[in-house]
Structures are given as structure tokens and as C-alpha cells.
Design goal:
Two copies of one chain form a homodimer. The first copy, chain A, has a single domain, classed as Acetylglutamate kinase-like (Carbamate kinase, 3-Layer(aba) Sandwich), CATH 3.40.1160.10. With about 260 residues, chain A is of the alpha/beta class. The first copy, chain A, contains ten helices and twelve strands. In chain A, strands 3-6-2-1-9-11-12-10 form an eight-stranded mixed β-sheet, sandwiched between helices. Chain A has a two-stranded antiparallel sheet with strand order 4-5. The first copy, chain A, is globular. The interface between A and B is large, with 39 and 39 residues.
Chain lengths: ~260, ~260
Amino acid sequence: MKTKPTVLKLGGSAITYKAHPQRANMRIIDRLAKEIEDAKTSRLIIVHGGGSFGHPLAKKYAINEGFHNPAQRLGFAETHEAMTVLNNLIMKALIRHNIPAVAVSPSSFILTKQGRIQELDTNIITRMQETGFVPVLYGDTVLDLEKGFAILSGDQLTARLAIELGAERIIIGVDVDGLYTADPKEDSSAKRLQRVTARELEKFHYGTKTLKVTDVTGGMHGKIIELIPAIEHGVRAVIVNAKKHDTIRKALCNERVAGTLIEKE
Amino acid sequence: MKTKPTVLKLGGSAITYKAHPQRANMRIIDRLAKEIEDAKTSRLIIVHGGGSFGHPLAKKYAINEGFHNPAQRLGFAETHEAMTVLNNLIMKALIRHNIPAVAVSPSSFILTKQGRIQELDTNIITRMQETGFVPVLYGDTVLDLEKGFAILSGDQLTARLAIELGAERIIIGVDVDGLYTADPKEDSSAKRLQRVTARELEKFHYGTKTLKVTDVTGGMHGKIIELIPAIEHGVRAVIVNAKKHDTIRKALCNERVAGTLIEKE
């Protein structure tokens, strides 16, 4: 039986310096590439976020509000270009670690409608996997059928890819140990949730006021909302801390690791 | 009436140092970006070649011979990555010159069959043009339905895009002044052809022994063969010297310039 795909999302918060526009954390990126090499996961797909490459520019030019002003054109171009620079740093690290990784540029084949993926032709991604490649996608500026253009978050893309490709699991690497009852960076009484269900996740989404929207694609709050369709489709997701040594390798190898497991029921 | 698109091909020989692997000629790239800015061509599409970024790696890993050996996977990944590095240098130059240029990665949406484009969905490229963007594509490593993978030359892509998008003209910028009766770099008696027809081009193709295959995609010889379907489709093509100051601007503005005009009849 063919192994089911695994989608690994590397959050922008883990791989870039949030406070420094367009600065990648090369130490973490190189270590993650090594962990991915060591894990030898078959049928792996990687999606990464924009962090300090994509978000400040997307915000500056209000890309996610759609095309209103001719000056936004150059902003869209700049934002996409910045994302390809971050992507290239990741590709170089993966290839250096002998991973046959091939970048797949979302804006080259995906259109959204009001910010939601309209169609996702996974033919090339599936063929890449069957040929033994590791496709690498990312949050991107994309054309939108109604707004002119929009931001496609890596999180929306991750969940949709997992559904379309029949993935078994999603591993989300961020800069905290999982989901908490409050923002652990601001509230020391915040407790990590070991396991949540899709239904609890929905309540969590509507009930939690302490989670703040920190990036143009919604931060942790946005991530959770985006995961729900994949979870309801039967995909298991685990949120772990990509900044902690060996965590992504362990998660890829199904070893026990601190994090939050999200399942359908 | 809507202007018909113009496809501008920038040859790898003009924008990279052929003798130096992965070294771009930034002086030329920056000047070309300025010329493209000054020309203000509407509905422009740019395609660039691989030069010393793509060709040496593609040759080293025999990418165009198809997938025979697991070691080629990393080679395919490396070759594509190198092409994205060259592309990024060009994108940065175009954006610096206020051109809302957006990279469209051929391997993300094009499949070939025995090295020939199988299907080309121009939906996103057309939408980019309608939104005022300048799509930029390039010769790339692509998945192939029969060979596993292949090289898609910028020349094949240029001609096919011109046909599919209903382009009026193709401007090919190379490192010589046009087509010659022999290789002008090696034969001082070589004469430039001012104008040739598709039929003459076919004879030229079969009759010329002096044109040598200098790159994995066929060099000048390959360029000519690839243009024929577009010319027969009614697209005008002009081959000019992109390394000569102001030549690409003049060609884009339909001003008189040294070169070879290729027309159907």
C-alpha cells in the first residue's frame, strides 16, 4: 500500500526574525533541513510561511484588501519577490542536505476567490511525489477572481493540500509548544492543550479573546480556523515547536513530542 | 481594440557570463530593465534563458535525457534552484525599475511530453496582463509525462506563449546582431540576414552546417527551429543584440534597429 502524504508546515515565526524585515533565521532553517533529511519521510510536502519576508510588505501595500490602487501593483510584485527570496534560502538548505526539493510557486498555478482557493490542480505536485521529489510551497500573493489579488496563507494552502492529496497528517511547526488556553508569551498561567477535537477547536476559535491577530494571515488564530476543514476530513494535525532541537524530526518520525494533537473526534 | 501582447525573450547568452557558472551580467540586466521601463510596452511578457545558471547543471545531470538514475533527482532540484536564482536577480532589477513584474515558474504549471509542452494553461498569465502585471517566465526543468523530467527551453516556451496568447510579435535578444549566413563569432565572412521567411528559415535550419549546438537547448540553431510554429501562425519575430545599448528599447518601441526580421511570407 502506498504511504499517505505528510504535509509539513513551517511557520514564518519559526524561520524568520519577526522583528527584522526580510531576515531569515538561517541557523534554524539549516537545522530543520537536517532534521527533515534525518527523518526520511516518504511522500513529504513542505509549506512555509512568510514571516518577516511576506507580512510587512503585504501589510504595507494592503495586498489582502484586493486591488484598489495602481500603486499596489508594484507592491504585489515586491511582496511575491520577497517570498521567493525566503523560499530560495529554504530550497538551498534542503538541497544542501540532499533533499530533492523542488519549489512550486502558488501564484503560478492557484487562483483564489475572495481569498479562498478556487481550484487546486494537484497533478504536478502528485507527479513530483511519485518521482521522488519533495514539493515545497509557500504562502504567496495570488490573483483573485473577485478582488484582483489576495494573500493565500500557507495555512489555508496546507489544509487544502492535505485534503486534496489525501494526506494522513499535518505537522505544523511554530515558535511555541502548541495551542494554549491563552497566549503563553503574554500570560504565564496559559496551559498547553495536549489534545483537542475539531469541535473543541471551533469553540476555541469563537471563545478565545486572548489570541491576538499578529500577522496579515491571522497568526495562531488564523492557523486554527484554517485547519478545521482538514481535521473534519479525517487528517490528524499536530502543532509543535519547530525552534526546539529535534522536535520536527521526532514529529515526522511519529515519536512522542511536546505539542497539541488535533483530531476529528 | 486591445493591444496584442509582445513576448520578449532575453537569451541566457546576453544576461549571464557563459564561461562563468552561475554568474549573471548585472550591468546588462540592470540596463535591460531600464530599457524595458522606458519602452512602456503594454501587455508585455518576458521569458529568459538559463545561460550559465541552467545549462552547466542541466548538462552535468543529463536532465534532458530524462529520469534514469536516482542521483538525477538532486540534480533536477539543483538545476531548478539555480534558475530561480537567476530569475530572482532579473525580478529585482525589473522591480527596481518600477516594472510590476511577477515571476511565473514554468515547472509549477507546465508538463511536457518527450520534451514538448503538453498543455499550457495561460489563464493566470492572461489575468496578470489584464491586471497590469508583467509576467516573467524562464527556461526550466519540468516534469515530463514520458521521460520523467525534461528541460523546457525558453525558446519553445516563447513561441508557444506567443501562439496561445495571440501575440503580435516576439523580440529575441541575444548576444549577436541577428541571424547570419555563418557563425559571426568564428567566420568573418558571415553576413547578417535582414529578413527571412518561415520557409527560408526551414531551409536555413536544414542547410546550415556552420551553426553549432552550444547549449543544452540547442543554442541559435534551437532558437530558430522553435520559432517556426509561431512565425507560421502569423507572429512577427525579430532577433536583435540585447547587449548593445538601447537596442531592446528600440525594438520594443518598433524603432529601426539592426537585427533579423522573420515573417511568415
